[in-house]
Write a structure and sequence with these properties.
1 helix
C-alpha cells in the first residue's frame, strides 16, 4: 500500500448529524478544482459523489 500524501493534505473532516440510518452534513465547495467528495467510514470509502459547480 502506498499513501498518497498529496490527497491526505487535502482531506477534510466535517461534522455530521445522524438520525437512525440517515447521515446528514453540510459542506461548502470553495475550490473549483474539486471533482469528487468521498465519504469514508473507518478509513474505507463507502460513497463517492461527483461535484458539479456553476460559475
Amino acid at each position: 500500500m502506498i499513501l498518497d500524501t498529496f490527497a491526505l493534505r487535502k482531506q477534510r473532516y466535517v461534522s455530521f448529524r445522524r438520525e437512525g440510518d440517515r447521515y446528514e452534513f453540510d459542506y461548502v465547495v470553495t475550490d473549483n478544482s474539486l471533482y469528487y467528495i468521498d465519504i469514508l467510514f473507518f478509513h474505507h470509502r463507502k460513497l463517492r459523489f461527483r461535484v458539479k459547480t456553476d460559475s
